[in-house]
Amino acid sequence: MTTLSNDERDALYRQCSLAISAVGRERESLFLARLALLLMEGLGDARRCGAAIEEAARELPMPSLSREGD
Amino acid sequence: MDRIGPFVYEQHAPRLPALDANAREAHRHRVVIAGGGPVGLSLALALARWGVASVVIEADTTVCTGSRAICISRRSLEILQQLGALEGHLEKGLPWTGGRTFHGADEILHFTMPHDERQKLPPMINIQQYWIEQFLVEAAQQHADLIDIRWGSELTGFEQHDDGVTLAVRAAGTDYAMRADWLVACDGGQSFVRKQMGLKLEGTGFEGKYVIADITLPSPYPTERRAWFDPPSNPGSTVLMHKQPDDLWRIDYQIPDDADLDEALRPENVSAFVRRHLEMLGEAHLPWQIVWISAYRAGAMTLPSYVHGRVLFAGNAAHAMPIFGVRGLNSGFEDAFNLGWKLACVARGLAGETLLQSYDSERLHAFHVNAGSAIKSTEFMAPPSRGFSLMREAALTLAHRHADIAQLANPRQTTAIGYPDSPLSAMALDRFTTELVVGDPLPERPVRGPDGITHLTDLVGPHFTVLVFAEGDRDIEPNLAEASKALEDGALPLRIVVVAKSGEPQADGQCLRVVDDAATETGAVHLIRPDGHVAGQWRSPSGATLREALAQAAHAHTISGEQA
Asked: Residue B523 in contact with residue B470, Cβ under 8 Å?
């Protein structure tokens, strides 16, 4: 498995943050869903995709600080 | 309704059998089938080819109104061929091999169903259910000595005993009683038999509401399945369109969960929706007219068991399928064909009654495979929650540039279902690289017979088949030939067919065909069930192995044909 360098991770984190801000709240969910689909195809590993979905859903804070309506 | 297009409804008068002073029919029947729809008629035909008589009790005096089921799969066509009803379907039906899916104004997927030059039959045809029923009725009339269709006759009650069923029937204002060894409920989604026994379908229901409309429309557009998500004509909607014979078109569309269904079904509202859709297609100028409107809600539900003593269930009486992927009637045909030979063998004393348990386990397995695919299709076509809606939008908006993601919109049309864990399959098996898989129906492959090209699926009939792949027409082992011969003389009908790579097809018919395809493995011996499913495969099996396998496949106590 190839891993990201710290610089690469920083850059992608920033790019994704900017993209979420740019698409706006109304399209935030759709953007993230499309991103998930593209990353799953790109990864091409059903087990790791499934594990990532589980991990993302684990210990989700309630309520989220990014919830709608604030 | 007297007619629709060129289809003329033939009325059949209710008829009473000869009754004794107590309004009871003297003759005791082997099999009574509740419901004269496509599943009930198919079952009657499947029994008749084994010489087993049946009575079909049908409340109407003619075939169904409305076009109802319209997509008939290749496997169903194979079954209809066996039942002697294929010809009309091929003449009248519209064959097709694929379809297109659109998102907004863009085509995002062009899918095709498995098809190649080895196939004899198309992967799918479209045809109205009234034509299907009419062809089955005509086929049944060829067996008037074995199939007694009682039109205009209503089953009003029944009682099960250890060895049969007593039925109460009303026809032409007269109530009478009849007796049968077996009752098979093929009486549809609202099954009277099921309700009378207090049985309930179990499974997953869905919220999505669909309107189904059939319209006349003289459109030259070819036969394929078209689906639109969020089309410009009806934003936010999902629309399906299928061509049927006689310039009839099927349009299905989803209405919002919170919409009032009765309101949506009003003809003026359906008309407005359809007009906008046809305008988008550039076909609104054609003379079109709505002929039938109905509603649909998705569900994948089944009885926990299809065998209840002397009462059996098949088709929609046994299970309900979402429309997406067309598994409703197609699984009904497979039910009837699976049950037909088994019930016939039991009724004739060729097989033990336990054979019917395999109908239960095999068709329940098929239900779960079907339901799995149908639920995937339904979750895409009619998203059941916000997560599914969001992911669908994500997939649809990426699909036009990502072919792999576009596959999520593939309708996953029905395919033949094998029985990998069938209790009828032989235990000790050799593995082969051929396409013949134990539990699966025979794959299609052209072979040369004495009268020209024929196909592997043509070898199936009301008998078991020992299918041998050999190098040359003289290369079948003497042991095997002897053992097979002995089995052939037994009580269970059995035929031996040798498919040789070289040599000439022989005119004794059953025994030799030359295959053109080099993919068969020589030395492979297969036992094929009467419904075309493979029950065993070996290299050079002994006579004892074959006898054992045949006894297991038929749940027969003894196989005569000697040499235990």
From this structure: yes
